[in-house]
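Input sequence (565 aa), recorded before submission:
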Amino acid sequence: MVHTSLYLLTACVAVNVVHAVFLVRPFLNGRIPTTFGLPRHNFWPYIPIIPPVKDNKTYYGLPKHNFWPWIPVVPPEDDLTPVTPPGPTPPWPDPEGGYNYGEAMYKSILFYEAQRSGYLPDNNRITWRGNSATDDRGMFGEDLTGGWYDAGDYVKFGFPMAGATTMLLWGFLEFKEAYEGTGLLEDMYDCVKWPLDYFQKAHPTKYEFYAQVGDPYVDHSFWGRPEDMDMYRPSYRLTPERPGSDVIGETAAALAAGFVAFKPKDPVYAAELLRHAEELFDFADRYRGKYSDSIPIVEEFYTSSGYRDELTWAAAWLYRATGLRKYLVAAERNYDRGSWAQSWDEKTAGATVLLYKLTKQRRYRLEIEDIMRDWLPGGSVDYTPKGLAFRMRWGSLRYSANMATVALAAANLGVKPDLYRKWAQDQIHYMLGEGGRSYVIGFGFNPPTRPHHASSSCDPSPWPCTWSDFSKSEPNTHTLYGALVGGPDIYDNFVDDRADYIHNEVTTDYNAGFQSAVAGLKLLEMKKQAAEGKATISLSTPTLAEIRSVEKHSQPLVRLIRTSK
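Predicted structure, token format:
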């Protein structure tokens, strides 16, 4: 640690500090404190502010604004180093060759369970998680509990949450037999129902929608368990006067896709999803605007580039759900050609595939081929030396994972099936190990163990969890099974560093396209095995008692295996 004097130039006051200083940067999705040695000088380009620490809340007394470029936080220190037994790591049968897709799907679902907010169900399988944010409320007291925490933090950002939900449902509907064949059908229904229930709560009246819960600047100054949070968590409401066609449209898409998925299972529940979807689409289409203009606090985190793609995506899903031509007309009216990548902010690639599925119009097929041409070798997207299609350094794996789902869905429609399936397999296999390591926590060879994820880094209660857990060199205390990290740089370099939020954070939107693409590959594997007359293995998920037995006794978890032709 550094002995130094900080000079607060604006007040001309010297403050003696005997600490290393953590800088919490609220910009660029700023969920990353960076530790650095303080130089011995008396000028500071960034004004240091050291707020009082009370119960691990390090934002007390700070003014409510969003223009602090750097906020130093001095965490409390402790010497407590409890040792806890490892969590469950269910063994799966070794695949005949390649990677075990069923295991990756199962563990990805566990990651979404680890991200749950609100009151957890009795069958909660993430034993180090408990009830949290149970006081989340709307402006008029509406119940906003539930939903998913976005990433390693505890903000409920509605835009990426809805985008992840739609991507998961799209993959579920396209590759449903893969979930059936791995015994994960009910797990997947349970997975997607969690955010769908939350979206209905967030839509209390026809022209009102809560797009976010939690102040990201306050939230990102806290490193601890979600169960221990006691900071004020504001909610952010959209109305006709403060529109948000992007997030509202994306949520309508998720609910419409949810209707299609749940209709054969629970028609009454599905009908309620469809009611919300239609009302939200009307809201998004009638009162147009970007949600990040209406909610400025989100601009540094998930700002929107536009909303016509979400209106197209939502209308296409509603056309699939209802067959009403007005939705096809709306989708085509809002459709714009060209796609940078399928992501939480961009839906044109997925909408193009869905419109081709629904209409069989040649123009959509040609547009799919144009979009994919950019992603194939020789196109505009760069490649790493080991073969990852590299669109962007921040969360590089998410874009190629999402586009792998796009490619597999297009291949199912007969659009260059051999080429697109091989490309999608190459991208997903890179993430599972072909890039030299696994990028999926708790899966495969040399997976990350220090993700930028607060709750999994914390020791079990009642041990304290503070910024010292962020800065520790040891792996996270709990294995965040199934989470896909951001990924390597353009040279395939990756460092398993908790401080690196660009490459080593996890988010719900990273996993959505990844899990869907893995399900698509699993279905292809099953069809190949069936054609060769080989038995397929269906795996039932472990019970809560089995998982707790593993954590208690550190014994292997035996999965139930059913063999069928």
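Checked by second reader. Confidence is low (pLDDT under 50) at residues 1-89, 546-565.
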